[in-house]
Specification:
There is one protein chain. The two termini are about 35 Å apart. The chain contains 8 helices and 18 strands. The longest helix has 24 residues. It is an alpha+beta fold. It has a 5-stranded antiparallel sheet with strand order 1-2-3-7-4, with helices on one face. The radius of gyration is 21 Å and the shape is globular. Helix 3 crosses helix 8 and helix 6 packs antiparallel against helix 8.
Length: about 350
């Protein structure tokens, strides 16, 4: 089961949802980069459970322990290992699910592929696996800050069901997004979204939506022209996240409604730089960044585990019913915001180091 991501800045995550710990090993991090453990912890706190009334009540401190790769706050160039212990495991809540497949979850497919699975909390299929990604990205963020200061990566909840936030990717700020527990950049829509999530949860159901992300001040020239196009690696990164079902960049599917004359982004020299006067390309052309803002969106399905009886089958292939147990998010989007940012950070750091390797 491969759990490695990246080519130069590589990460390998490990651990199951209700095992002893989860974490990450980072390989390929440059030496002599200042790394703040407080910054790592801050990002983990943004994705941890129990942080608000609209997320899973599982109580985890998610305290990061750095086991290797740093000395006196500087990276050594050797592998960095970061561990987070699971302290609020309740595997007993999943006894029934050990023999009954949860609809739209990974239970059946893991059994079909491996013939064995960790039933408690979904094991590796759980969003708890993303702790390692977020911790690694907090280190990657500090690599970016040293090698190319000024790059900004911000994500926010764009929609929940049909509720659409009005957010300008050019001007939205971190404080705008973090000012509300749903993590949308539209303060006027925040309470409506929160109430929708509460109502869905009270009904024993779940709901999905879209997260939008902007990368500002990305230098031109990042990405490869064929299989490792920058948008292709961003798509792989986002679709590797639990519950994702769609990715689009720039004009996305809406661009199919335009003609080439309407869709093309004209070039002009502005302040001595090659710029485009529109950005339907979403900041990437030919698989390579062009210096404009990179803007993409990720679709998240409703959480698979719901507190309602559903038809399913057992591991011995008998028809039965199953009602969700345990502690789950009725909507994953508020906690997925920092995870989307994390994966974008990992992709950008990897491609920046690959570009520097060209000399």
């Amino acid at each position: 089961m491969s759990s490695t991501f990246g080519q130069v800045f590589r990460i390998h995550t490990y651990g199951e949802s209700h095992g002893g710990s989860v974490g990450v090993i980072i390989d390929g991090c440059p030496p002599r980069v200042p790394v703040s453990q407080e910054q790592i912890q801050h990002e983990l706190d943004r994705r941890r459970p129990g942080q608000s009334e609209i997320v899973t009540p599982r109580k985890e401190a998610d305290t990061a322990e750095i086991l290797s790769g740093l000395q006196d706050g500087l990276t050594l160039g050797s592998p960095i290992s970061i561990l987070v212990r699971n302290t609020d495991q309740r595997p007993g809540a999943y006894d029934e699910m050990a023999v009954k497949y949860r609809p739209s979850h990974a239970d059946y497919t893991y059994d079909a592929k491996y013939g064995i699975r960790s039933a408690s909390g979904g094991g590796r299929a759980s969003a708890r696996e993303t702790i390692g990604r977020v911790a690694a990205a907090a280190v990657a963020r500090q690599v970016l800050d040293k090698l190319h200061p000024g790059i900004e990566i911000l994500a926010w909840v764009k929609s929940i069901q049909e509720l659409n936030a009005d957010v300008d990717p050019q001007t939205v700020t971190y404080d705008d997004i973090e000012s509300n527990i749903v993590r949308t950049g539209d303060a006027a829509m925040a309470e409506t979204m929160i109430e929708r999530i509460k109502a869905i949860r009270n009904d024993g159901n779940s709901v999905g939506g879209v997260i939008e992300c902007v990368i500002r001040n990305c230098p031109p020239g990042l990405g490869e022209p064929i299989f490792d196009k920058l948008e292709a690696d961003l798509a792989k990164a986002m679709l590797s996240l639990p519950a994702t079902k769609g990715f689009e960049i720039g004009s996305g599917f809406a661009g199919t409604l335009l003609t080439g004359r309407e869709h093309n982004d004209p070039f002009r020299m502005i302040d001595g730089k090659v710029r485009t006067t529109s950005n339907r390309s979403g900041g990437i052309q030919g698989g390579i960044s062009n210096g404009e803002n990179i803007i993409f969106r990720v679709a998240f399905k409703p959480t698979a585990t719901i507190m309602t009886e559903q038809d399913t089958v057992t591991s011995s292939h008998e028809n039965t019913e199953l009602k969700g147990r345990g502690r789950h998010d009725a909507c994953v989007l508020p906690r997925a915001v920092p995870i989307v940012e994390a994966m974008a950070t990992l992709v950008l750091t990897d491609h920046l180091l690959r570009q520097k390797a060209l000399g």
